[in-house]
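Hi R.,

Here's the chain you asked about this morning:
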Amino acid sequence: MSNENSPASSLYFKVAPGVWGMKDMIVNYYFIQNSDKSWVLVDTGLSTSAPKIKKVAAKLFGENTKPTCIVLTHGHFDHVGSVDKLADEWHVPVYAHYLELPYLTGHASYPPPDPTVGGGMMSALAFLYPNEPIDISNHLLALEDNDKIPGLPDWTFIHTPGHAPGHISLYRKSDGVLIAGDAFVTTQQESLLSVILQSKQISGPPKYFTYDWEQAEISINTLVNLQPKIAATGHGRPISEPELREGLELLLKRFQQVAIPEQGRYVDDPAVADASGFIYVPSGRKSRAGWAWIAAGAALGLSGALYFMYARHKRSLA
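And the predicted structure, written out as tokens:
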């Protein structure tokens, strides 16, 4: 088991009793331990995250450990990058909401990410982000429609669409711990500087991948009504009361002004999905021209920043 005062503990951060997270370059994933010492992995980060996940798991739970299962908040590339490799190695099931299954079984792509939403370099480079499906059919199971999460008896899931059709958040009612995925985040994810510095700011879902802003606002309202005490998100640092309550209430109150971009492919014309995938995606012809050229120039800065972040993590794992 881990010694959280050891140097190895810098690999991860504690969220709440039995809940730890790790920031891997641009995204977080989480480890949840039950009272019987079994544990579950929530999301799997990037394609390079698998060895880091296994190292943290070994520090937290012991060598050669494996989770009961993997739970996905949604299927965007930065949350499922290592899921196939880990599920294959561990021989464990992967659970997701049934509306995410098309993107996890190779049947449908997400709508194209939108580089025109503004906010910084992470948005400008969104045209580079993969939106194609992966295929983990041999491991994948749908969560049942009863809010229960296999392997996590003390937790429930809440359907929080808008950023992805089958996006879920995980909630432990006993102490108000919320793992919100990308339903909201605690940094301005559109800004590369904010991502690097992890500047704390409760923000709406990352703008460049959010396909339905009305649903996203309803999801925020649902989470506000839970009155969580601690929240951990897919991007940014954990946040707790009273800052959490105040920030979420302000986000909901000013959602139209601060969360929804002034322009963008899906702002006035949301994409539409059903259990088969997306059945309508707006053309994007109204999007402002020239962003690809701006993004191409900005790519040089991004590549340098990401290399720095990767090198720092590599040194910490050495």
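Residues 44 and 154 are 21 Å apart (CA to CA).

Let me know if you need anything else.
M.
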